[in-house]
Sequence to fold (416 residues):
Amino acid sequence: MGLAFKNDLHDEFGTWPIAYIPYGGADFGEVLAVGRAVGDGGDTVFHEAWMAAGDRLATEAEEAKSRRLRSSARDLFLRASAFYAASYHPLYGAPVDPRLLTAFRKQIDAFNKGLALFNSPVEPMRIPFESTSMPAYFIPAAGHENAVRPLIILTNGYDATVTDMYFASAVAANRRGYHSLIFDGPGQGEMLYEQSIHLRPDWEVVVGAVVDYALNLPSVDSRCIVLSGWSLGGHLAPRAASGEHRLAACIADPGQWSIAAPFRDFAIKLGATPQAATHLGELDQSVLDRMMQVASDNPSFRWKIVQRGFWVHGVDNLRDYLRSAEQFTMDGRADAISCPTLMTLAEDDPLARGAEAFFDQLRCPKELVRFSTSEGAGEHCEMGNRSLLNRRVSDWLDGVLPTKKSPRRSLAANPS
Fold:
């Protein structure tokens, strides 16, 4: 956004919380203040500035709690969580930086403390998954905590965590009367940082476990379970919907056919033939070397490919990363999506370039929603105007879910 930080990569990371302003995750002056504190500093200074701001908020939260100012304490703890979450993206990579783990643990501690201070406290959950479990939170609809309502399962992408998903989507959904369930799956948040479990392409297996769990929650309307994914989640969500048919709707923000497609174009520009680029893992070493050189010379590419990509996929070289990336595809699966599906397309988001072509392949009820720079929503995941995205998504869901056509039952005479 170019608003607060002198370093382009720091600006990309550091302005995320601006999207959370309508939902209590930050205020504009706070972000600017962190940017000023970072100045010309490097990644360590960036990390320390966000951590200092998070510590300040957490201290204020504890003081408010001690004075029995429950609402203020809750809001401050949650905001501190967002600040801790903003601190460590420059530290991505294997082996795990101890500073990242410290920040993440502070983030989750503050998040849990904040959620526990709602009138209907939100407690951490564990979703059984294969030989382990995934961290999750069920966030009830505001004012309808004990009512049976539709549920939106929110899935992240490459590098966001439960805190980001809470502020980016869950708060807005809950204000509109939707329960939400947020979780870290393989390759995300706790599953990556603490358990070293890497990203996997068969997201239908992951979401299947989440749906199994959700169906045992008494306030979930089993007819109206929605899956929504942002960033890489715009690929993972439709991939899951192609194999998990208990979903009532799917949202892909933005829709992405595969991870590998941008790398095919990249390889061709660097000398690979179109035929060779169809098998990225088998590219000539000379092409891979040129790709790595470009990545090494560009801080953004280096972070996305080497620091994030290698770590999240559990590899240590470009060839294995590309082999892994090729497994994340909708080839042969788009026709299997049967639930109503909404895809977004923000005009300046590079990851959205294939959204329209993906949309055209769908045979289910569908809608493509465009977002423009003139609306302040043209960037990746509409982060400059996230409230517009959330409003349009909720409006769409209100029109497609069957619960809107019949009365909801309640578990309590007076929901609180």
Observations:
- The chain has 15 helices and eight strands.
